[in-house]
Amino acid sequence: MANLADQHVTGAHNGETRRDFLILTATAIGGVGVAAAIWPFIGSLSPSRDTLALSTTEVDLAPVQVGQRLTVAWRGKPVFIDHRTPEEIKAAQDVDVSSLRDPQPDSARVKKPEWLVIVGVCTHLGCIPLGQKTGDDRGPFGGWFCPCHGSIYDTSGRIRQGPAPANLVVPPYEYTGETVIKIG
Amino acid sequence: MAETRPGAASRIIRWIDHRLPFVAMLQHELYEYPTPRNLSYWWNFGSLAGIMLVVMIVTGIVLAMQYTPHADLAFDSVERIMRDVDYGWMLRYAHMNGASMFFAIVYIHLFRGLYYGSYKQPRELLWILGVIILILMIMTAFMGYVLPWGQMSYWAATVITNLFSAIPVVGQGIVTFLWGGFTVGNPTLNRFYALHYLLPFVILGVVLLHLIALHRFGSNNPLGIDMKGPQDTLPFHPYFTIKDLFGLTVFLLVYAFFVFYAPNFLGSADNYIPANPMQTPNHIVPEWYLLPYYAILRSVPNKLLGVILAFGSIFLMFLVPWLDTSPVRSARFRPIYKWVFWLLVIDVAALAWVGANPPEGLVVTVGQLATFYYFVHFLILLPLLGKIERPRPLPLSIATAVLQSGGAQIGRAGASTIANR
Amino acid sequence: MPNRICSAAVLGLFLCAPILNARAADETPSLPQQEWSFDGVFGTYDRASAQRGFQVYKEVCSACHPVRHLYFRDLADLGYSEDEVKAIASSYQVTNEQPNDQGEMYQRPGRPSDRIPGPFPNDQAARAANNGALPPDLSMIVKAREGGPDYVYGILTGYKEPPAGFNLLAGMQYNVYFPGHQIAMPPPLSDGAVTFADGTPSTVPQMAHDVVTFLTWAAEPNLEPRHRTGFKVLLFLLVAVGVFYAAKRKIWATAH
Fold first, then answer.
1. Alpha-carbon Rg of chain A, whole angstroms?
2. For the whole model, what pTM was predicted?
């Protein structure tokens, strides 16, 4: 069909495109290889399995009597668990939500009203508020009192007075049994 | 916008390059740098070594983020990396086997230099820098091996640091100073960790000097004769970049096989036993890349002399450019030296075998003979051969040798030998 | 030509360098090679065997041997469900990390995030209970001994009467594969010592096989991801070698 000269020209052209294709393929493979190689280095910085194993804590609430407060550790921080008395529940629910610095109704902060689960780290600068031990100063609202700068929390863990900007954080938790919660 | 963005990028690069000419430098050293056109695959190992240094540093840094350098916690922290850290097992095995790969590459690179006379004038300093790199590597690897705090870690540290007690008068004092205590212990571990992290960056600096020295005169080549003009050379890029990359993929196959399918083959099972200062393992064996030096050390009945000869076996390497008196570089044209070279390789392999085995019976005899021969090679054979050997005639140039199909060319023997002896 | 052969031989020598580690055989006979589910490039852990092995460990070995590097949560990898792991954990009493408010250390039921506790609080107590011998930790034992799984299997099945004239020290047992042939551990396994839930007959070789599978997993829990990743990596690199070689040849075609 085509004469020899044409075949030679197309042969050379094909040679060049084949060469470019090879270089392109090689570069692509190299790029994929480098990206795949980098992944484990970055991945190794994620929280490791032993850290993740401690990312949830199960707490058996049965031994905690009405009016008692329990502190458990979760992800390196204290979590306050309060088995609230009916008076404390009522005091928490009767508050005018719009008057709060960080408006939140008590119902939004508990799953069952008798049990309050909050992270015991003051939202001002991170101290641990008092109120968990018998004899501790609970502040005028019967909740918690932070001795560092005087933040005062109510029986729902909401900020009422003092420099803290927000309510004590409610961690993610769920009931895995009648009296057992899993935090985190 | 699309038209100006690439323009902006190249303008920025030119602004920087005008003040700090790194692009111009790369342009010259990569694209234009003349490389002998006849380099064989034995010349791939330099770039492989550089890549392995980077791999060891990067895996090492990531491991250092998870490792605890305390005698009570180190072993467990390594196991935590192996079990609980994402990809931790991969990084640890890569670092562990990477050390072996690094040494294999560097030893091949070194023997390539011995065979082709790459250490000869004007590349003596290039060679010396290389030996310095090897010594730094040995120190780094030794200290790194102590870090997992297994039985072998602890006892290898004890044996090797005890070597310094052979020094008369001040020896024991030096050892106590090195230990930071009365035995290898937590102070020792901590200082080894700090130095193990530091030395690779010192190696990096020396490698930079090594490359600068290399680029002064360019690479040697299998014929051992100088590049005479552009007909003898090829630009480094793309010819040797692609060749190096190809060699890299082949090497990675070997490396990956060890990491994924035989990660503990090159190591010692004893190092998975936590260090016990009250119990010595039955056979204390260093990693394979230190076996020849260990064999030399044990072959000499006198402690001080053993230490001197073991260290001397490496320091002797510094003198090779002057010990070898031959005017011809490449063993291709040195019919006697060619066989003497392979005898050295066999000798080193024999020393490695000796080092791996308990010093009894045949092992001792072979060790002594092989140690003796090692020093004979460098101190007697090298100087002697240069004088008495009749080299084969060298080709006129690289180009004539390469472009003519087949091998040896007839040329004037004196025409291409090294000038200015 | 001789150069090429020599170079190839040397390269091969370097790759074989580790075989130069000719461990002196003593008079210990070579270990019979067992077949393991985790052998070879495509090896995996037989989960049923490993679970039986864990049962053997729990009911026989754990009386003297700790497995310090295992957490209860690791057992999920053997096929136990989250609830089963929790049940196994809570069947143990572990010492709490922190003392109580009176400053005393106290025991509580185990959690999946706890390490599996060993039988003794420290090495001295372990020695006191075992005539001065220290039962080694088993979570690394397969990696910590030459011969690995075959060695541990050999020890477990290698108890025999000492040959005539052999000087067996007081309190020691004769074992074919233990270096020196004298081991302080009495034969731990006997037929029927454990009743397997899946009905597998618990002969000594069966129990030894299963417990070694469990212990190999304990020492190398990441073997399967390692093999899987390795397969992909090697396959990728094989392709890369081919492509880069072709590219190299193409680029060099004009050079000669």
1. 31
2. 0.89
